[in-house]
Amino acid sequence: MNILNRIFEIDYHMAKSDGKRGLILETPAKPEFLPAIVSTLSPGRFLVTDKLTTASRIRSGIFKSAENLDIYIPEIYSAALSLSESQQWPNRYETLDQCLDYIRKQSELSEFYPSVLMSSDSWADLCDLSGLDPAVENYRGSSVYITSIPGVMVFSRSDLVGLITQFTGSYASLVMHNVKMGVAFVI
């Protein structure tokens, strides 16, 4: 399904010659995007950076990726939740409704509908509480994607969340910026 392509901004690039590519990608960024989660050179490995280059860019690694980047969702979830906990940000809530309200407030758009990633167990719990039909995969206007994360993660608009850059030859780089205001968790 390529869930991440629906959540992040996507930038596609062709290799200039013979499939050659750099090891590091520099993406223009603002200081308020930090700290950010960035890909490393190893598939499925992400780290936190709190520095921009002197040219106001975030550096991320370019890795050999699977065709569908969704296999990395559990690692992205884990990195983002760990960052939120270590920074003690106010983006962790007890209910999905609280997360949705937080994300809508941060996006400053009342008609905006966030994207929700959750496990099938979390969806079943939500259905038990609200009588929702899991076949609908929609909650309060938000798109719900069932995936293999251990909890619930709510994303704001793609421009507030991050960027995936994909290169020919199955290479990619990921920058997840603005985790504090662009992502919320049900804990």
Number of domains: 1
Tally of contiguous helical segments: 6
Q: Structural class of the helix and strand makeup?
A: alpha+beta
- Supply Rg: 17 Å
Give the overall shape: globular
Helix content: 25-40%
Oligomer: single chain
- Helix and strand element order: HEEEEEEHEHEHEEEHEEHE
Total E-strand runs: 14
Largest sheet: 6 strands, mixed
End-to-end distance, in Å? 26 Å
Portion in beta strands: 25-35%
Summed over residues and divided by their number, the pLDDT gives a mean of 82
The low-pLDDT segments are: none
How would you describe the overall organization of this protein?
It contains six helices and 14 strands. It has one domain. Strands 1, 3, 4, 6, 12 and 13 form a six-stranded mixed sheet that branches. A six-stranded mixed sheet has the order 7-14-11-8-10-9, with helices on both faces. Strands 2-5 form a two-stranded antiparallel sheet. It has helices spanning 3-7, 73-87, 96-107, 120-130, 158-161, 179-182, and strands at 9-13, 24-28, 36-39, 46-49, 57-61, 63-64, 92-93, 115-118, 138-139, 142-146, 152-155, 162-167, 171-176, 183-186. A hairpin with a 3-residue loop joins strand 12 (162-167) and strand 13 (171-176). It has 187 residues and is of the alpha+beta class.
Quick gist of this model?
The chain has helices at 3-7, 73-87, 96-107, 120-130, 158-161, 179-182, and strands at 9-13, 24-28, 36-39, 46-49, 57-61, 63-64, 92-93, 115-118, 138-139, 142-146, 152-155, 162-167, 171-176, 183-186. It has 187 residues and is of the alpha+beta class.
